[in-house]
Amino acid sequence: MTLWEKMCASDLLGGKQGVIGLAVLAAVIFLVLPLGVDIFRLNLIGKYLTYAFVAVGLVLLWGHGGILSLGQGIFFGLGGYAMAMFLKLEASDPITTKIQSTPGIPDFMDWNQLTALPWFWEPFKSLPFTIFAVLTIPALFAYIIGYAMFKRRVGGVYFSIITQAVALILSILIVGQQGYTGGVNGMTDLRTMLGWDIRTDSAKYILYYANGLLLFGAIFLSKYVMSSKFGMLLLAMRDKEERVRFSGYDVSNFKIFIFCLAAMMSAVGGAMFTLQVGFMSPSFVGIVPSIEMVIFCAVGGRASLIGAVYGTLLVNYGKTVFSETYPELWLFLMGGLFIAVVMFFPNGIAGIWDKYATKYGWFKDKAVTAKKPEVSTTGVETHAVLTETLSAEAAAATESTDVAASVKKTTRKKAAISSPNIRGAEA
Amino acid sequence: MFGYSMAEIGNIVVMQGFSGLSMFTVLLLMALGLAIIFGQMGVINMAHGEFMTIGAYTTVMISKVAASYGFTDYYFIFAIIIAFGLAFAVGYLVEFAIIRHLYKRPLDTLLATWGLSLVMQQIFRSTFGAKEVSAELPEWMLGSVNPTPDIDIPINGLFVMGLAALVTFGVYMFMYKSRWGLRVRATVQNRTMAGAVGINTAKVDRVTFALGCGIAGIAGAAFTTIASTGPTTGTLYIVDSFMVVVFGGAASIVGTIASAFGIAQAQSVLQFFMTSSMGKVSTLLAIVTILMMKPEGLFASKLRK
Predict the structure, then answer these.
(1) A361, A380, A414: which is the final residue of a domain?
(2) What per-residue confidence (pLDDT) applies to A58?
(3) Is the pLDDT of residue B300 over 60?
(4) Contact (CB<8Å) B288/A335
């Protein structure tokens, strides 16, 4: 068995088609784009790719878990601000800030008559703590929100509305607390990380590649989660939550976990954003950016990790091009995109690709045949779940005809797991 | 307390309370429309704020026309009716074109209507310009009432309160005392069964949605008496009105009124004692915390799901 065959056979990568998809994406991110565009544009693409972290998290959370969070900007912002606080402290050493009335504190604090560094800023003088904070604070925040909501079985649109309200609260808070956060301008003028100037071209290349590698890390982690038993349960929860609960699983814990994971990914994206763009502001935290990130994911295909990355790149590229040349047209297009994707292409680009790839038989070789058993093994697992369900429901002595009917329906649905049909899933 | 005497605090509470009441009426009218659309139909209409903006722009336009023909004193009545009619018509079209295809996918409705709100905002911006415009208020609406020398109550506030009371009463009568309301409630409770007994559920959906939008149009007309209108006015209120509906318990009119009152008053009074942003933050935070402890809202209907 060669390495190629091994890779194609692995469940983690999703067969030959999955391997090719990842390879193409890697080639685009690591070779085609860096060679094809200048450093200014590449830096811009690097910025878009930081949103892709959020989109990948949303694929897990929304595409596979059926939980639509309209507050991913919260976590993106928390991660970004944590990194910005570290960089800002490094940029405000007593020598460069000696004209301030209190040297050694960030400039916006001085403007707002603060005379000492607030206590919660102190730990951000250390890079290890900052990285730790980027990874844990948003996840902890997500845990609190998730625990409070999912344990009480708040889901669906209520969850969306409340996460949206939290995003609003956080952005108002950041704008309002100017002395501590830099207010509406955010934290600007970030220069170095441990003495390494992040504004030079070479630093931008290095950060771009680091960002790309981290993004691939996030994709592999998501693939791992999705191909595990947990991924199966997630899909089952999306399609029939009650059934999974009756089978004895604690649905809320799974939901909390996936919400925290998505939050952590968003936070990494936020931190990389700050490093590459050199500032962080509340305009990446509030309602509008949070919901725009959902559309990146929806355009790419809400169930497809690679699709989400392409969706993010495409929408942002369109945004940059149109808002430079026809600013009025952009909102029409963006709005139209929301409506069109939802109404006509619920599976996004990935859905269209799948349709035509199967139609013209582009991957009708070993890959598909190698993939078949994968579906049937998952089918077996689903059967195990269903048998449990059946016994649980039989014990509860509910309508047996209904159960039989839904068993048939569910098995049919599971056969289509590799390309989930949204219409069917939520019907 | 905060360097004010007791009497001053009393006056502040009354006056801030009253400015809160103006906000309460707008929130209430917005939320009533949403309570019908979201509470009854389960549709998340993120473009609801833009329907309010339709009403507001309509009123502003009519006031301009009225000013040039010299009937400023009574235009407001027509403005309310036309604002309602226009928002109703647009809502009807939107339901027909978009919403009816998405009833089974509530999360997707949310995204589609958000897209719709972006498009509508841009239409407003292209048509009326990015600058905020305000209506020419009739003379009689401009003064204020002074029950005591220190207290100043604006008449326009009293007027929109009367309007809100009327609309609330109307919605109550419509939903609970009319044939139409009966059909709406029947459709909500059991769509299949309602269809089986001969109710045209598709038509009920369309009219219900349009009615909710029409009420948002009235909210827009009321809004012009207290603030100026811009293309993004609606977005400022959308989260607040969703909070009102969810907080009050989605399907309850009493709950909607109570929570609109509570939220508007809390914001208004807190904004006086803290900064404006902290007032808003603490109110929203309190609501979110309470909702996390009591997800079904304050006045949840006691239905078995």
Answers:
(1) A361
(2) 94
(3) yes
(4) no
Distance from CA of A250 to the nearest CA of B (A): 19
**Any CB–CB contact under 8 A between A168 and chain B?**
yes
Contact (CB<8Å) A338/B243: no
The answer on A346 and A395 residing in a single domain is no
Kindly indicate the confidence band of residue A22, based on its pLDDT and cuts at 50, 70 and 90. Answer: confident
Q: Do B119 and A148 touch (CB under 8 A)?
A: no
Is residue A3 domain-resident? no
What ipTM, to 2 d.p.?
0.85
Q: Please state the length of chain B.
A: 305
Q: Under an 8 A CB cutoff, do B112 and A342 touch?
A: yes
Structural domain contains residue A10: no
User: In terms of domains, do A293 and A353 share one?
Assistant: yes
Give tens-digit pLDDT for B36-68. Answer: 888 777 788 899 999 999 999 999 999 888 888
Residue A209 and residue A111 in one domain: yes
Chain A residues with beta carbon closer than 8 angstroms to that of B239: 164-165, 168, 287
Say yes or no: A63 and A139 in one domain. yes
Residue A40 belongs to a domain:
yes
**pLDDT above 80 (res B272):** no
In this structure, the number of other CB atoms found within 10 A of the CB of residue A110 comes to 19
Domain boundaries, position A409: 365-427
Element (H, E) at A215: helix A201-227
Annotated domain spans of chain B: 16-235
Helices and strands of chain A, counted as H and E runs: 20, 2
Q: Is B114 on the interface with A (CB under 8 A)?
A: yes
Same domain membership, residue A169 and residue A77: yes
**String of DSSP letters for A179-204:** HHH-GGG-B----EETTEETTSHHHH
d(CA A374, CA A357): 19
> Would you tell me how many other CB atoms lie within 10 Å of the CB of residue A350?
25
Choosing from A313, A338, A361, the residue where a domain stops is A361
Distance CA B52, CA B33 (A): 10
Average pLDDT of span A249-271: 94
pLDDT of B256 strictly over 50: yes
Residues A263 and A206 in one domain: yes
- Do A409 and A284 belong together in one domain? no
Residues A288 and A388 in one domain: no
Asked if residue A115 has pLDDT above 60, the reply is yes
Element (H, E) at B154: strand B153-154
pLDDT of residue A363: 56
Q: Is residue A166 part of a domain?
A: yes
Give every CB contact of residue B33 below 8 A, 6+ residues apart in sequence. B48, B51, B211, B212, B213, B214, B215, B216, B219
For residue B106, give the chain A residue with the closest CA: A157
- Give the tens place of pLDDT for each residue, A191-236: 888 888 888 888 999 999 999 999 999 999 999 999 889 989 999 9
Determine the pLDDT at residue A92. 85
Q: Contacts of residue A164 in chain B, CB cutoff 8 Å?
A: 239, 242
Q: Name the strand (E) or helix (H) holding B51.
A: helix B48-69
Please state, in angstroms and rounded to a whole number, the distance separating the CA atoms of residues A293 and A76.
10
For A254, left (φ over 0), alpha (ψ -120 to 50), or beta?
Answer: alpha
Q: How many structural domains does chain A have? A: 2
Between chain A and chain B, the number of residue pairs with CB atoms below 8 A apart is 126
Residue with the larger pLDDT of the pair B304 and A155:
A155
